[in-house]
Design goal:
globular, alpha+beta, 21 strands, about 850 residues, four-stranded antiparallel beta sheet
């Protein structure tokens, strides 16, 4: 039987490459502009319209960032920022429409503690500014809570986070001066201790007088500058929240995939605290976060158009929830854990019957494929058995193609990492196309390009065999949908919607006559929608995740995640399209061009173009502590007294890029110390440092560091209880605003009672008490009761380490000279620290 391949005279050899180039240009012409689309910033001239005015919000942001870093306990945070916000709130209160609204401002100072990850998170005198805006004479007791924080990480002016405080101020200003009514009182929480982490929001939700009346919350967080605000999380079992988002948001930007990512890689945000007490939405600005939490996180990285987009969305949602009747009885409307996503920023899709939708689509795909096999059998005048005889080998080949499309980028990531070339895309994202997308495309089309020339002259035509590759790609995706759905991943929706458009074209082709490659028309049109969405999501993930790759630490290969994002995006976007190059002459040319681009990308990655860091825009974060360590024996004598710099390198390269500039002679890992001393014998700053302690590095220093002061640890009392098996210790520590206490009972000694949460005793020692204060620097008093079954208290019972951190202090001249020796692409985050370890 003659081949049904398209006439070669009408398909020149270069057409296959033009075919692929067309989709790349389509992505650049449609997806990228829609992703970057933002409204024009509004000015004061439009303030009478009752809309969000970005110009006013930018002025607030400018003043907030000019204060500088706002670390909990610092004068900037506890005095300057609080006073600035109180002044702004007073101005807003003066302008409120008294005939329509009541406004109350409460200044909360709160203390408390809770268990967070592997530590007790204890706080004292942290501050909240809480504003309640209510309809005139309203007596309702169902409030909406809108939360964000004004504190920052060390060294950071925090423009990324500050833009959300500026947004809240402007939303409050607009709502209180516009004759647009709402039914539910709205509580705006400006909290002063989120970075510590989440202390102020915990203090509000557990102890504020309005907290129990708050029924729903919006949490606003900022990690970068630019783009729209992302709906990253929605509380489970409250699908109606997403319905409100769908109906009222003006610039939609959402994906439930962010929920899956944050479940696997949890981060510290107020959402994780608030969602334990009420349902809510987490809105995060997450684009361009390369300088987040560094000294470069400044006013000039924030776009007024971006802030207008954020403000439009927040104002719309606050007004919507302010009139939501669901707040009157939250439990009555509970139900459903939704899938949600936006399509190119144009609309939002959301639904809660996830299992039903995914299983239905996967089942429909399999059923339609079977039907189409019967159609091929009829159109080819062969038995269904003969068609299956082609289908099964093609299925094996397509599984292999799918595997190659996934594994080749992973191999590239591993090889680059082994050669010390990871993060080449960090400042040059265009390298991702050559390094990861091209290998994935190569793997996807290689089996079909090799095999298809052998498929001429068979009973099943060339065109129909090619169609079998497409059908098998859908079959693989159908089973993956079932697998990910059963595994609980809501991100399976991406595959589901790819299959929905595939099923649509398959239905069309079941109806239309099958003549050579006629089936490709419906495929190209229907899959075009999938292509747009998948590449849009892939681009979103790249823009959001790439900056985070500089924060994974030394033990993680960040290229693995970037390769995975690009591989899966390429497979879903191009898996139905790349086999179509076999319609044209010399499809092997496609393989050649993909290899050329790949090789050129490797060469570029090996030049300065592939160096990960750039001054100002794409920096390497380098946190370290200027440490003075003092160890005391049981009798109180000093057994060890030394100094050095303790590094917690944030990315895969660690100290390597710094060696040509900074004198790091003598730098060693501390893993051996972790075997000798409690908590490695170092002042681990917080739970992140504790988690990464095996990767920390120590640079000894000859001259001892003299910290601003050393916290005094006083044993106030010690006595044995009447049972003669329990001993009581009471301590007083003149703490710094950030202090960590480590406690390690010796063998056969157990904590029976103490000041801290009792449930934490169940955790595996050593115990970690992370303490900070805001506007109250009183000493910390605490007691511990230890139980020892043999009642022998004349020997050492436990060790206690106390670290005092002096954030904001530059240290002595040697430390300052050392900090100044770092290259301009490095953003150092450092301060003096004292560490004392006692034996009691």
């Amino acid at each position: 039987m003659p081949s049904h391949r398209v006439d070669n005279s009408r398909s020149q050899w270069y057409i296959s490459s033009i075919f692929l180039l067309f989709w790349l240009l389509l992505f650049q012409a449609v997806v990228v502009p829609l992703f970057n689309s933002l409204p024009n910033a509004k000015t004061r001239h439009e303030s009478s319209k009752g809309v969000f005015i970005a110009q006013r919000a930018m002025e607030n942001l400018y003043n907030l960032t000019n204060i500088g870093p706002k670390v909990v306990g610092s004068f900037n945070n506890e005095n300057k920022t609080v006073q600035y916000l109180l002044n702004e709130l007073a101005l807003i209160k003066e302008q409120v429409l008294d005939d329509y609204f009541d406004i109350e401002i409460d200044h909360q100072q709160v203390s408390g503690s809770y268990i967070h990850w592997t530590m007790v998170n204890m706080y004292q005198g942290v501050q909240n500014l809480v504003i309640k805006l209510s309809p005139k004479n309203c007596t309702g007791d169902a409030y909406l809570l809108v939360n964000s924080h004004f504190d920052s990480k060390p060294t950071s002016p925090s423009a990324g986070g500050g833009q959300m405080i500026a947004t809240i101020l402007e939303v409050l200003r607009v709502m209180s001066t516009t004759r647009e009514p709402f039914e539910n009182p709205i509580v705006f929480l400006l909290n002063g201790a989120e970075e510590n982490p989440m202390q102020a929001s915990h203090g509000f939700v557990t102890k504020h007088k309005w907290a129990k009346k708050c029924k729903v919350f919006l949490n606003l967080d900022g990690y970068g500058g630019g783009g729209r605000v992302l709906l990253a999380q929605s509380s489970p079992d409250h699908a109606w929240l997403v319905e409100y988002y769908k109906s009222y948001v003006k610039h939609p930007f959402a994906t439930v995939m962010a929920e899956d990512i944050l479940e696997d890689f949890p981060v510290d945000t107020d959402f994780s605290i608030l969602t334990k007490y009420m349902p809510g939405l987490n809105l995060a600005q997450s684009i361009n976060s390369y300088t987040y939490q560094t000294k470069l996180d400044s006013y000039n990285i924030i776009s007024s158009d971006s802030l207008q987009s954020i403000g439009d969305d927040v104002l719309s949602l606050v007004r919507a929830f302010g009139n939501a009747k669901e707040l009157q009885d939250i439990e009555e409307h509970a139900g459903g854990t939704p899938v949600f996503f936006d399509f190119l920023g144009l609309t939002v899709v959301g639904y809660s019957k996830v299992w039903l939708v995914n299983w239905t689509v996967a089942g429909a795909t399999i059923f339609l494929i079977v039907l189409y096999l019967f159609k091929i059998s009829c159109m080819s005048n062969v038995s269904i058995r003969a068609v299956i005889g082609f289908f099964v080998p093609v299925l094996i080949l397509q599984i292999f193609a799918f595997y190659l499309g996934w594994i080749l980028p992973i191999w590239v990531a591993k090889i680059f990492d082994s050669c010390g070339r990871s993060l080449t895309y960090f400042s040059s994202p265009s390298l991702m196309f050559g390094l990861y997308v091209c290998p994935s495309l190569f793997g996807l089309c290689l089996p079909s390009i090799i095999v298809m020339p052998m498929c001429r002259g068979h009973a099943v035509s060339y065109a129909r065999v090619l169609h079998l590759f497409i059908l098998n790609q859908a079959l693989i995706l159908a089973f993956l949908t079932i697998y990910f759905t059963c595994s609980g991943y809501k991100s399976a929706y991406v595959i589901t919607w790819t299959l929905i458009f595939f099923d649509l074209q398959l239905l069309i082709n079941l109806i239309l006559p099958d003549v050579q490659f006629s089936w490709t028309g419906a495929l190209l049109i229907c899959h075009g929608f999938s292509f747009f969405y998948v590449t849009y999501l892939q681009y979103t993930l790249i823009k959001t995740v790439t900056p985070v790759m500089g924060l994974l630490g030394r033990s993680e290969n960040p290229d693995h995640y970037i390769a995975l994002i690009n591989a899966m995006g390429t497979i879903l976007a191009m898996g139905f399209l790349i086999p179509l190059v076999n319609m044209f002459r010399r499809p092997f040319a496609v393989l050649f061009y993909l290899l050329v681009i790949f090789v050129l990308s490797i060469i570029l990655a090996s030049t300065p173009f592939g160096f990960p860091y750039r001054p100002i825009t794409n920096v390497q974060r380098v946190p370290y502590l200027q440490v003075r360590r003092t160890f005391f024996d049981y009798n109180g004598t000093i057994s060890k007294d030394d100094s050095g710099y303790l590094f917690n390198f944030q990315d895969r390269h660690g100290h390597t890029p710094l060696e040509s500039t900074v004198n790091l002679n003598g730098l060693v890992g501390i893993s051996e110390d972790c075997e000798k001393f409690m908590m490695c014998g170092h002042p681990l700053f917080d739970h992140h440092w504790v988690k990464n302690r095996m990767d920390l590095m120590w640079l000894p220093r000859e001259k001892l560091i003299d910290p601003p002061r050393v916290p005094e640890v006083d044993l106030l009392s010690k006595f044995v209880h009447p049972d003669n098996k329990t001993i009581h210790y009471k301590f007083k520590i003149n703490v710094t605003d950030h202090t960590s206490i480590f406690i390690q009972p010796y063998k056969n000694v157990n904590v029976k009672n103490w000041t801290f949460p009792m449930k934490y005793i169940e955790h595996q020692p050593p115990y970690h008490i992370y303490f900070s204060y805001g506007n109250n620097n009183s000493p910390l008093f605490f007691f511990i009761d230890f139980n020892k079954s043999n009642g022998d208290f004349e020997e050492p019972l436990f060790e206690m380490g106390v670290s005092g951190h002096f954030i904001g202090d530059k240290g002595d001249k040697i430390s300052q000279d050392f900090a100044n020796s770092f290259p301009d692409f490095a953003a150092t985050i450092q301060w003096p620290t004292s560490y004392q370890q006692f034996i009691f």
